[in-house]
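Subject: Protein entry, chain in single-letter code together with its fold tokens

Category: Structural biology, sequence-to-fold work with a learned token vocabulary.

Notation: Tokens come from a learned vocabulary of local backbone shapes, not from coordinates.

Start of record: The labelled sequence and token lines come straight after this line.
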Amino acid sequence: MSTTPKKRFLPIWVYILMAIELVMITGVTIVGMQDITVMHPDQTGSSYLASLYITRNLVALGGLVLATYVFRSYVAFFLMLLQRIATEVSDFSNSYWFGRDPEVLASIPYLIVLLVVLPTIAMVVVWPDVKQEAAALRAKTNFLRKES
């Protein structure tokens, strides 16, 4: 019977980062749902935009949770983080260029750290495992092709 310690799938700080994102997305969802249900006459399109934002964030975070806990795949985790970073960069640029709301602009620096810089570091950390898993998948695919 082997007593070798089981290797953790991801470092603990990545799990903490995902928990922080979950709390942040939950807060945005609560505020956004209030915006959707309480429409003011001067807010004609905000409920639609709020629902799109909420849906996209919940799907992206749900994908991270699936990639991490269900599939336990480094490739899936890496791709979901890449997609998450791309959507956040898009949100930040849209907020900066079109929003001009001082409260939103004031929150951008810490959101960039939490939602772009730290996930980018997580991508760098898991990159060797991504390459190894991708190579194993390619080898498995080539083996299956040779059999048929």
The helical segments are 12-37, 46-70, 74-99, 102-147. The chain has a mean pLDDT of 77. The CA atoms of residues 53 and 74 lie 26 Å apart. The first helix runs from residue 12 to 37.
